[in-house]
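Input structure tokens:
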């Protein structure tokens, strides 16, 4: 490739004048040889341009592929971050803490049949004790750790 560049530089300095003034050559053979040489240089230049065009096309394709992969990776990363956030939210909801105690205490009841002071049968709602709620939360976490298998 450097040979082509050297010939192009030479032609830029000398060859174009010689080709334009072909009548100054000693013979038609010298003029014809100079034209052939210049045609060879032009073909070499065309080949070089074609190679560069192919390389530019290849690089553009690589850039587009990298861009597409980046967008795909970005989408995967975004989905992974959303899944992690959801996992953390669920873990927090199933881990006994002051926040979960405040959220769940008094939320769950069970009915006990009994008699009121007049002897009538009534169902009294009794709140589920916090210790029982914690045991239920632990059972849910244990089942989730097993992948939902009993």
């Amino acid at each position: 490739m450097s040979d082509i560049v050297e010939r192009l530089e030479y032609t830029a300095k000398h060859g174009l004048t010689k080709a334009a003034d072909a009548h100054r050559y000693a013979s038609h053979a010298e003029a014809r040889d100079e034209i052939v040489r210049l045609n060879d240089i032009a073909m070499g230049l065309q080949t070089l341009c074609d190679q560069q065009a192919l390389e530019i096309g290849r690089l553009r394709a690589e850039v587009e592929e990298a861009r597409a992969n980046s967008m795909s990776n970005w989408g995967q990363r975004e989905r992974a971050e959303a899944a992690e956030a959801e996992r953390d939210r669920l873990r927090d909801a199933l881990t006994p803490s002051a926040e979960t105690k405040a959220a769940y205490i008094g939320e769950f009841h069970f009915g006990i049949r009994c008699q009121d002071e007049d002897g009538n049968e009534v169902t009294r709602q009794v709140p589920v004790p916090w210790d029982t709620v914690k045991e239920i939360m632990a059972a849910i976490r244990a089942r989730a750790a097993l992948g939902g298998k009993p």
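Residues 94-150 form one domain. The beta strands are 109-115, 121-127.
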